[in-house]
Design a protein that fits this description.
Elements lengths: L3 H27 L8 H8 L5 H14 L5 H10 L6 H11 L4 H8 L4 H35 L17 H4 L7 H17 L10 H29 L3 H10 L1 H4 L10 H18 L1 H9 L6 H16 L3 H11 L10 H8 L3 H39 L11 H25 L6 H12 L3 H5 L9 H26 L6 H4 L21 H23 L4 H11 L1 H4 L11 E2 H12 L1 H15 L8 E2 L1 H15 L1 H11 L7 H76 L5 H33 L7 E4 H18 L3 E5 L6 E4 L1 H17 L7 E9 L2 E8 L6 H4 L23 H11 L3 E6 L5 E8 L5
Parallel strand pairs: 4-6
Antiparallel strand pairs: 1-2, 3-5, 6-7, 7-9, 8-9
Amino acid sequence: MLQEWVILLVSFCYLGILFAIAYYGDKRADAGRSIISNPYIYTLSIAVYCTAWTFYGSVGRAATTGAGFLPIYLGPTLMAALWWFVLRKIIRIAKVHRITSIADFISSRYAKDPLIGGIVTIIAVVGILPYISLQLKAVSVSFNVLHTFQGKTHILPAADSVISNPYINTLSMWSGTALYVTLAMSVFAILFGTRHIDASERHEGMVAAVAFESVVKLVAFLVAGIFVSYYLFSGPTELIYDAVKSPELSKLMNLEALGGGYTNWFTLTFLSMMAIMFLPRQFHILVVENVNEEHVKKASWLFPLYLLAINLFVLPISFAGLLFFPDGSVDPDTFVLAVPLHTNQEFVALFVYLGGLSAATGMVIVATIALSTMVCNDLVMPVLLRIRFLQRSDLSSVLLPIRRGSILVILLLGYVFFRLIGESYALVTLGLVSFAAAAQFAPVILIGIYWKGASRRGAIAGLLAGFAVWTYTLLVPSFVKSGWIATSILESGPFGIELLGPYHLFGLNMFDPLTHSVFWSMLANVGLLVGVSLFDRQNAMERLQAAHFVDVFRHEDIDTGLWSGTTTVAELKGLVGRFIGVEQTDKAFSEYAAEHDFDVKTKALADANLVGFAERKLAGAIGSASARVMISSVVKGEEISIEGLMKILDETSQVIEYSHRLEEKSRELEKATAELRAANKRLTELDRLKDEFVSTVTHELRTPLTSVRAFSEILRDNPALPLEERQKFLDIIVKESERLTRLINQVLDLAKIESGSAEWTRECVDLNEVVEEASSSISQLFHENSIHLEEIVPEGAVFVMADRDRLIQVVINLMSNAVKFCEPGTGQVTIRLSTLPGKVRVEVVDNGPGIHPDEQERIFEKFHQLKGLRDEKPRGSGLGLTICHRIIKHHGGHIWVESKPGAGSKFIFELALAEKV
């Protein structure tokens, strides 16, 4: 047991750290140096999804259903795989239209209707209150566990008996830990969530603090898991082995332990898929606070890794709790705290408590900021703007107080819900009620961003029907379980009509209560949304917004005029200034004027684009629906007709399509130009090489021909020459003739190989014999130049399937090249044959001057020649190595060179081994 003052001191010190981080984040943002503009902070902020439910409730659920906690994290993992296609589109829409909340998003899609925004806000507030109360309950219960748990003999109430906890019920409604935490959270949310009138501006300090909390809760839960698994036990294996010994615990290893079976598993997976996107706090973090949509790529795989890490030790902790408290005397939701306390590890328990506090505060702060924006923009402002004497008043000074008051009211309502209803529910149950409420937003958003036919009336009908069914099948039973409504409604239905029972509506009694509610609410929601839309006639505004949302990647930069009427620039500035302040308005209009090249002071009438700009600025402050109402109050005229709207959209689409085609043609031309440049460069190089080749070959042909002719003429004109001298001249003629033949053969060989007309034979060839024959053929060359030749070959035959003569040609070419670059007298050439797994390698090594790295890349190119050791000009035709490369490549092998300047060269080729036939 820890002293109360210690727990409070640590709690408020931790909250102080969060204040400091948020303050620093806002300061850096004001200075233009954002600390949240990276995908890792974005991913950590998304982890606000992991609330006190994750920290405490998952362990409690695992203790009763085994793997039943997994669907809550499997759903977000599956949805993350779709983020680049779905979430990125939603983010792009939100940035283009300056969306401030999920209510603003839905109302903007459906003709900027204030009624839809109000309905969504009411659903969100009512639906999220159980979730907020869950966090407050978790903080309160965890505080009480730390403060009151005294050891093995101490008993904490189980989940189904929390309402009878004498400690809680003896407290006044307006006292206790939960109330103090509620007030502290409200102060934080007010300070760092309502600094700007423009709600579309990012709350960088708040996001930084949430990211820090995500790190703390992950580390704290891992510490708890490692402590339980490796300190109290010898590892998870021993822990699970001990659990399996118990017949009761072994049942948790099967999926059958999940209440509701497989159907409930899929229901939870679906709800969590929708919750990660459409809970107001998740939408706020994922969409409104997004800095760069490219961050979605990394978050789509990093966030599932975070979920995996924070759930690694859920089952070990739950099993440990069940082993330590087999009599059910301790609420499974508190196992993560009770187990360390049971083993007198109070500091571990205190750190774990901080992790739970982080999980709860992060969710509450972000949720209340998101809900307060919705309440202000979609509930309060539409009412205020219809009060006559306020229609011309400056309301910029009341927007922030409204949001701040909304934060306090929402948190207090969550606290009241916790005290009146939440105490009779386990943590997970409270969370699932809110998940089912958030799922009601999924059809109007997902269908709305992909189907232009979804209409405003269809959206209203679907939302109201889904919310009504959710209220009747989940919320009403929560009041029944808390004792506020008679239990007869659950058993026999209202007025004794069993078909209308909340848990067996219309006689459907095959599902658990949660699956039953989700089935009927989603059926009503989607059915009415689609059914009414199919038979509805959309007005001009509905069609325009539908086109902008569905085709956001095509229309995002188009500023389509919405009005056929007119207004003045002064009236627009005055209107916008009433909500965001005169100074901010002047700055915004000046920047717009500079960008569009006109003078605000001299321009009298505002065009449609300027009206659209003013509407978007207002949308950031008061929401799209209210902005629409206010703009319509100053623009003199009527909305354009459907025909006019369609004409604008058609013309816009044609312009965009034409622009896209031009861009595509431009890219094709650039690509073709680059290819032509490369081809021209290659042709120029080939032309240069051709000239060099012609020059070299001409020289090489002329030299032996000149020698043959000269010595032949000497022999003809001097018949009396001595026999010894005559023999010498004949030897020179033969040698030069062989050289001439060799040169011509190389040119012909390469031409045949490249044209495909060369004749090839395939036979089983012994490479030892190839090396021996090539060495014998060229031995005279080594003798004449006083160069030592060493042969290293393995014992036994080494067979390959190849053309024998061609391989001999390759070896001779490589060995003659080696001789050419070795110093006479001191030169040494080694030919080495070795076998490798599945292949054979031949190496020709010399101790010549080596080859420069730049030359190594080009040495196998046609006509490319290296200077000989003793020649100023290159020798040969420059075709020998090219022919070698073509022959080895034809045999499916590989040839390359390894060399360092001054350290000789090594030419290597490899071929596949073959069995002797």
